[in-house]
Structures are given as C-alpha cells and as structure tokens.
Design goal:
422 residues, alpha/beta, Rossmann fold, 40% helix, 21% strand, 5-stranded mixed sheet, BirA Bifunctional Protein, domain 2
C-alpha cells in the first residue's frame, strides 16, 4: 500500500505544477518590471541566524524545522535570509531592491490553505526610509496579484506607530502596549466580549471600552484619519505620513480598493511603521489573506549592528494557487508527433527535432502504441495538434497536421507545419 505524504505537505500533479509555474512567472515578470532583481539564498540557515528575529516573537522558534545534530534549520521566510545577506555584504548599493520566489517551511499546525511547506514570493526595498519605497512594494505586489487573474481584492493599510499612539492615548501603559496590539490584531477573529476582557486586563475598564469603541468606528480613509488627529494627542505627523502613503498609492491606479484599517497590526513585533495586507472576499467578507508586509527598520540591525531602514511584501503563491482553482493545462506541448510503424520513427524524430529547434513545444511518441492509442494519449493531455507520419507522408517528404479541436487535417511540408504552429 503506497504511503501518504507527511502532514502539512502536498504533491502537485503535472497540470497543477504548470499552473503554479504560470503564477510564479507572472509574479516575477511584474517584479522585474518594477526594477527589482533576484536574490537566491539557501534553504538552510544557521539556527543563530533564524533565532535572531526571536527577540521580537516568542512563537517563531517553535516553527523552525531544525536539522538533527546540527545548529541549522530550514528557513521559515525570506526576510531573515535577506537581513543576513545585507548585513554580510556591506558594499551593496542602496536602495537594494530584491525579490525572491521559492519554498519556506514552518512547523505549525496544518490548516485549510496553510501548509508546513509552502511557496511564497517576496519583494523588498532596503536602505530607504521614505514612504515612496513602501508604496512601491505595495503596488508591485498588488499588480502581481491582478495579473495572475485575482481582480477582487483589497489592500488594507495601517501603521504600527499610529496604532501605538492610539493605544497609549487610551490609557494602556507603555509596557503593555505590545500585548494590546496583539489583541487588536485579532478583533476580526474573536468575540467583542473576549477582546474587551483581555483589554481590561491591560487598562482600566472604562479606558478599555473607549479604546475598543474607537477601534470599531467606520468611515472613509480620510474620516478615520481625521478622527485620530482630533482625538489622539501627538498623532498629527503620523496621520500626515499615512495620508502621504495613501496619496502615493492612488498614483499607481490599482484595481483593488485601498482601505485604511487601524486594527491591522500584522502580528509580528518587528514591524516599526506601515503595515498592510492583501485580502480577498470569502463568503461575502474580506477575510482571506493572500499576502502582506510592512516596514521593519530595526530588523537588519540585529545582524549588522547598523540601523538600516527596510520595507517589504510577501505573497502566498500556494494560497493564490488554491484561489485560482489550480490546474488549467496538462502539458506545455503544443503538438504531439505520432508515427505509424518503426520504419517511420527516424523521420518522425527528425520532424520533432526541427520543430523544437524553432521554439515549438513538442511531445514525441516513444512507445510501441498503435496510431489510435497515440491519438488517445494526445487527447488525454489536451494537446491541440498532432503531427502524423506514416509511409505515405515519409515518401512524399511531407507530414499530416491534425487540429484536435476541429478534426481538420492536411498534408503539408514540415516547414509549412512549423509556420502554422509558430
């Protein structure tokens, strides 16, 4: 009896793998269009490197797959390898605009659309503290989402600095601010009474109620920002900075709606400024995240002891694959070369070689199946054309090209077939 895959990982059939590669190809093309360049880092990092970020997150260490008897582990994201690389290469030109696409691993509990091995795509700008760089990575990621075919999405934008100011403004002590951020970040997932009870442990009951009520307000982006400016002392400069980011994003003419959501905190404590999330609708609610990111100006300094501003986005390629309903085509081949009888094998092979040399994707019969079985094989893979070679075709120095959708076929020269297929 064949064994199943381990929990939290999965196989991708050839058809699914083609779709997965299509998505990554589209995403990479968009990143290149924005002037980002690739960086490849190893899947294995030193535990000391992976744990450096742990001073921000107590949970991260539990998610690392460690190598037995070695002080190494599998990467759980691309931000840590980027930070390590930048810290180790002090001569790189800044701003450093890189992207990376590949697999990462997390040892957490598998859930729907949440795997232990997953593919993601990251895009980052290191060395710029300006909101222009935040807008650039947000826009590049949003456009990549659009061009894969996901049109109905929203960009939820917030600011950890602004959220911190609001929390302190409602009486939460500075030493409990991080706990309050985590509670507020879960407001969409937990009941109001539960959130209020947790906040009341950090601030006086009346202050906790006022804070929660303030967070629950609704309105346009500008209305919400004006409420913060009017009610939270010392927030004016941060509100203006958020307004600047929203204005910059407007210039990119994104298809998705940009929404200021002050409850968004993105969980990780290493975020220092703007944070964002890309959400798609599920059951009538913008509840399914397919990516996100933020500004992390303090992270690279952990590795280099040198303050370096940075901002970046991450896209869940595996999750996008699920949303786009997976497989679309079963093979890359545009034509299948079939032949009748071993005496025509070399002629068929020569035809396949000629077409491949002209950039045409060709599948070639390599079995002893009869012609009807060969055509059945081509049909099972939805190959749109079949080039048939028999004694008649070889003796006339021609080929028979059949359109598998219409059934039309004709006896033509190989060069004419190449021109048609190109």
């Amino acid at each position: 009896m064949p064994e199943d895959t381990p929990r939290g990982v999965r196989d991708f059939s050839p058809a699914e793998a083609i779709s997965l590669r299509y998505i990554t190809g589209v995403v990479e093309e968009v990143f290149k269009r924005f002037g980002f360049y690739p960086l490849e880092t190893p899947a294995i990092e030193n535990i000391s490197t992976l744990n450096a970020k742990d001073q921000y997150s107590e949970e991260q260490q539990k998610e690392i797959f460690t190598m037995k008897d070695e002080q190494t582990g599998l990467r759980y994201d691309f931000t840590v390898p980027l930070a390590r690389y930048v810290a180790s290469n002090k001569d790189i030109s800044l701003p450093f605009k890189r992207y990376q696409i590949g697999n990462a691993w997390r040892r957490d509990e598998p859930q729907r659309m949440r795997y232990r091995e997953f593919m993601q795509a990251d895009v980052d700008v290191v060395g710029s503290a300006e909101p222009d760089s935040d807008a650039e990575v947000i826009a590049a990621t949003a456009l990549a989402i659009e061009e894969t075919g996901i049109r109905d999405y929203a960009v939820l934008v917030s600011s950890r600095e602004l959220l911190r100011q609001v929390i302190l403004g409602f009486g939460v002590p500075a030493d409990k601010e991080a706990q309050a951020v985590r509670i507020i970040d879960k407001l969409q997932k937990i009941k109001r009474d539960e959130a209020l009870a947790q906040l009341s442990e950090l601030a006086k009951g009346q202050d906790a109620e006022r804070l929660l009520g303030f967070m629950e307000q609704e309105g346009s982006n500008e209305e919400m920002l004006q409420k913060i400016a009017a009610n939270i002392e010392g927030s004016k400069a941060l509100v203006e900075r958020m307004q600047e980011l929203l204005k910059l994003l407007g210039s990119y003419r994104l298809n998705g709606k940009v929404v200021f959501d002050m409850t968004l905190a993105r969980g990780f404590d290493y975020y220092t400024g703007f944070v964002w999330e890309f959400a798609v609708e599920e059951n009538g609610r913008r509840s399914l995240s397919i990516g996100g990111g933020g500004r992390y100006d303090g992270l690279i300094g952990i590795y280099s002891k040198r303050a370096t501003p940075a901002t970046g986005s991450s896209l869940g390629i595996s999750r996008m694959f699920e949303i786009l309903n997976g497989a679309s085509k079963k093979t890359y081949a545009k034509v299948f070369v079939a032949y009748i009888g071993q005496q025509n094998r070399d002629y068929a092979l020569n035809a396949a070689t000629e077409m491949r040399g002209n950039g045409i994707y060709v599948d070639l019969n390599t079995s002893s199946k009869n012609i009807s079985k060969q055509l059945e094989y081509a049909g099972s893979l939805d190959i749109p054309n079949v080039l048939i070679v028999g004694d008649q075709e070889r003796q006339a120095n021609k080929v028979k090209l059949r359109n598998m959708q219409t059934g039309e076929e004709g006896l033509i020269t190989l060069q004419e077939a190449i021109e048609k297929l190109k």
